[in-house]
Amino acid sequence: MKTIQLKNIKKTFHLGGETVHALDGISLSVDRGDFLAIIGTSGSGKSTLMNIIGCLDQADHGEYFLEGLKVSQMDKNALADIRNQRIGFVFQGYNLLARTTALENVQLPLLYRRGKQINHPAKKAKEVLDMVGLAKRTHHEPNQLSGGQQQRVAIARALVTDPAIILADEPTGNLDSRTTEEILSLFQTLNDEGITIVLVTHEMDVAEHAKRVIDMRDGRIINNYKIAHRQYASM
Amino acid sequence: MKLRKFVISALRSITRNRMRSLLTMLGIIIGLASVIALVALGKGSQADIESEISSLGTNLIMVRPGSTNAHGVRGGAGSRSCLTMDDVTTLSKSAEHIQYVSPLIRVSSQIIAGNVNWNSTIQGINTTYPMIRNYEVAQGSFFSQRDMKVKAKVAVLGQTIVDELFPGQNPVGSRIRIGDIPFKVIGVLSEKGQSSTGDDQDDIVFVPSTTALYRMSDGKTVHDIMASATSELAMDQAKAEIASILRKNHRIATGDDDDFEIRDQAEIVSMATQVTGTLTMLLSAVACVSLLVGGIGIMNIMLVSVTERTREIGILIAVGARSSDILIQFLIEAVILSLSGGIIGVLTGIGIAFGLGKSMGTQVIVEPFMIIISVGFTAAVGIFFGYYPARKASALNPIEAMRYE
Fold first, then answer.
1. In this structure, what DSSP letter does residue B151 have?
2. Phi and psi angles of residue B21, each rounded to the nearest 5 degrees, phi first
3. Nearest CA among B140, B139, B144 for reference residue B127
4. Which chain B residue's Cα is nearest to A81?
5. Residues of chain B with pLDDT under 50
6. Given this model, what pLDDT does residue B69 score?
C-alpha cells in the first residue's frame, strides 16, 4: 500500500478573468518511508500540490488516496480529522502560537483529536520534543527560542500525532545555512526511523537531502528521479 | 474534557489582553452595576414604604368628605363639610367590624411657649386615635375621657414641637398658648420620623377633639374620620358598614352618590407599588439598552480579535480543528467575556447599592432572582454577539489565513 497516491489531479484558479491551471494532471505515488522533495520555481504549482496532499484544499479533478483512504470527495470535517491524525505540517514561518510554551504548542493537535485519545498528552509531547532535541526548552515561548529551535518545535508538533506523513513547506526558507543543515539533518534522522516525508523547496541543494525529487513546472511534473548523490547533513 | 481545554485556552487569550478585555467588559459592567444597584435600592425603598404604611396600621380606614357640587360648580376632594361628631358617635356605637373610631379636626395655629413660637397643625382627636395610628407616649400621659368631656385645655406634643419650643427640656407640665388659648402640656409622643410622602410626623400637637371643635373651630366641622377595622380580613365589611351608616345618617337616598369617600391603606400600598413597578420597568429598559451596547462592544472586540488572530486560526485549522471547534472556542471566549463582565457588574452593583443604602438610610434588597436573570442575560448577550465573529473565524480558509500578516 502506497502512503500517497495521486491520480490525474487537476486544479484551476480563476483570478480576475484569467484561468490558471495550477495543477494540470498530476499523478504521483509515495511509498512508506520515502523522502520526497518537490522542487520548482514559484508559480510552478508546488504549493498547490502541497495543499492538496495536506488536505488543506481539494482538487477539482482526479483521485487522491492517503494510506488507502480516498481523500478526494471527503467533506470538510473528515478532512480536518485526516489532517489532525495522519498529517504533520511544518511551515516556512514556523506558525507556532505566540505566548504559548513549546510544550503547549506541541500538544495543540491533540486538543482537536477525535476518536481514540492519546493517554498522556503532556508525556507524549515531551517525548517528541526530546526527539527533536528540545527536551530542555519545553517551557520556553516562541519569542524566547531561535528560528531553528522554533522550527524544531514545529516538527515536534507535526510528530506528536504519529502521522502517516510529514509535509514540510519550505521548512528552511527562513533559516541560515548552518541551521538549515541542522533541520535537514533532523528530517533525515526522522526518515531513517521510518517516517515518510514530503518536502517542498525551490533550492536544489536542499532537495538533494531527500531520496527522490520531482521537478514541477506549469502545473506538471517534468522530472521524477532518484537522487544519485544524496547529501547528508551533519549536525 | 475538550470543553475544559477550550475554556482554558479562551481564558488564556482573555488574560493575554487584560486591559482590552476589561475595557470590553466595562460596558456590561457599568450597565449591570447601575441596574442592580438601582433595583436593589428601589426594592428597598419600596419595602420601606410598605412597612411604614403598615406601621400606620394596616386596618386603618379613612373617611373624608366628598366634593361640593353647588349648581354644577364642583369643589375639590374634601371640600364638603358633611362629617360630624354625630357620625363618629354612631359609628362607634353601632358598627360591628370597627374596633376604634376617632374624628380628626385640623386647626392651623401659632403655638407660643414663653418667648418662642412655632406654627403647626393642631389635631383634635379622641382618646382612641393613638390606637388607630400606633402613636405612643414617651413622657407624661395622653388625655383622658374626662378631658374630652370637659373640653380640657391639654395638649400632647410631637417631638419636633418639643425641639422647637422646649429645646433640651422636659415640657410635661409646662404652659403653652395655642392662638389665644392657654394649654397645659401633659405628654410627649415618641418619635415617628418622616412619613412615606416626606411629611414630618413629629410636627404635631394633639388636643381633645371636643376642645378643638368647640374652642378652636366652628363647632361642627369634622375634617376626617379615622377608624380601624377589627382585623385585616374585616376591612371590606368594615368599609361597607361605615358607608351604610353614614348614608343613613346623611339621609342619602338610594341611587344617589355618597357625600364622603372611604379609603384604606391597601389602596395607598397598591399606589406606591405601582409607582415602583413603573420605575422597575423603566430600569429594565435601561438595562436592556446598556446590555445591547455592551454586547456590541463585545462583538467589536471579538471581530478585532478574529482579524488579529487570523494566522493563529489558520494554524488551528491546519492541525485539524474543525470549523465547529473554532466556532465553539470563539463563542466560549465571548461568553466568558460577557459573563465575567456580568458577574463583576452584579458584584459592583450590590456594593454600590449597600454603600448608597447606608448613606441614604434606605433598606437594600438584592433579589437572587434578579441576579440569576441578569447573569443569564449577559451570557445570552455573549452568545448572540459572539456568534457572528465566531462564525467568521470558523469560516476562514486555512491557506489564506496562515499567509495573513
1. T
2. -60, -40
3. B144
4. B320
5. none
6. 65
